[in-house]
Specification:
This protein is α/β, with parallel strands linked by helices. The protein is built from eleven helices and 14 strands. Bound molecules: phosphoenolpyruvate and manganese (II) ion.
Length: about 350
């Protein structure tokens, strides 16, 4: 890190900072300028606390880190794009993976019908919630393990790997038994113990962006996955809370470019939670594909009007097939395939 001292600092005050830098385990290199003294502290910036400690000294003007705080997810650690293999579906390669399926698993008939239709239209993975993080306790909470069993059956029938959400640490083992990818939802995006539990199962982890989360906070939440020896992390932009209420959330497509620049991990876009309106989902997908998203997470239901959750944003089976056709040329022009 680079430490700039205030002007008119005495040699004793400078020396005190130098000693503190050594105590923290860094090698100080002092540069006396005309007006200011700058100290380069060489060493592994293992803890952000070190910056805070030095910043607290009254004779210190500023402390600037040299290393990224999100070390393992950063491109510095791994310059090439990473790919994640979820039950045979590769995310982060040339093919844009489409993860499609209902918001909630509701019944065998609903799930099988959807799974076969999305597979036929070109989806590479099946999504579906068995444990649902509902805003109200009076709303459908999901089928639980029964839902996981139905997802596993749908995988058996269609060959589509499964992505599904877990809500608590004690569900990690159970959900990992059935799923090919574990989803951490927006409401749990900074539930670090849950993220660690998911990471420790060894299954790929799809980390949604918290609805009020800054990108740096999101990257650092993802860092928990890699720091727990699971390299299979995907970031998923799903819209953030803004002053705009025309849409359910504001889908922040700039996150695709930013995460691509900052991280080697694949970036997924969820246009369904992102806009909350079925009529806007296709446009959001078009934008996401053009921006370079590695995958899309799309809610599809055989009869959205009767859906037990997120009815307004789910597209129907024909709508999904049409959407895939519309996206193909855009994917090709972006150098990808669908
Ligand atoms: C979902 O995918 O159905 C969901 C609940 O997502 P989020 O956590 O982004 O709201
Ligand atoms: Mn949903």
């Amino acid at each position: 890190m680079i430490i700039v001292l205030k002007s008119n600092v005495s040699p004793e005050e400078e020396n005190a900072v130098v000693e503190e830098i050594k105590k923290l385990g860094y090698q100080p290199h002092v540069m006396h300028g005309v007006a200011r003294t700058v100290i380069g502290a060489i060493g592994d910036e293992h803890s952000h606390c070190d910056l805070d400690v030095l910043n607290a000294w009254p004779q210190v003007e500023s402390v600037t880190p040299v290393q990224k705080r999100h070390k393992l997810v950063s491109r510095e650690a791994h310059p090439q794009d990473s790919t994640v293999n979820a039950g045979g579906a590769i995310v982060g390669g040339k093919k844009i993976q489409v993860m499609a399926g209902p918001c909630s698993v509701e019944s065998e008939e609903q799930l099988m019908k959807t799974a076969h239709a999305v597979k036929a239209a070109g989806a590479g993975m099946l999504r579906g919630g068995a444990f649902k993080p509902r805003t109200s306790p009076y709303e459908f909470q999901g089928l639980g393990e029964e839902g996981l069993k139905l997802l596993a059956k749908a995988r058996e029938e269609t060959g589509l790997p499964i992505v599904t959400e877990l809500l608590s640490q004690d569900q990690a083992g159970l959900v990992a038994e059935y799923a090919d990818m574990l989803q951490i939802g927006t409401r749990n995006a900074q539930n670090f113990q849950l993220i660690i539990a998911a990471a420790k199962t060894g299954k790929p982890v799809l980390l949604k962006r918290g609805m009020s989360m800054r990108i740096m906070e999101w990257l650092l939440a993802g860092e928990y996955v890699l720091a727990n020896r699971n390299p299979n992390l995907l970031f998923c932009e799903r819209g953030i809370r803004t002053f705009e209420d025309y849409t359910r959330n504001t889908l922040d497509l700039s996150a695709v470019a930013i995460v691509k620049a900052e991280s080697h991990c694949p970036i997924v876009v969820d246009p369904s939670q992102g806009c909350g309106k079925a009529s806007l989902v296709c446009s959001m997908c078009r934008g996401a594909v053009a921006m370079g998203a590695d995958a899309l997470l799309i809610e599809v239901h055989p009869n959205p009007a009767e859906a037990m959750s997120d009815a307004a944003q789910q597209i129907d089976l024909d709508g999904f097939a049409a959407l895939m056709e519309e996206l193909r040329p855009i994917a090709e022009s972006a150098g990808r395939e669908l």
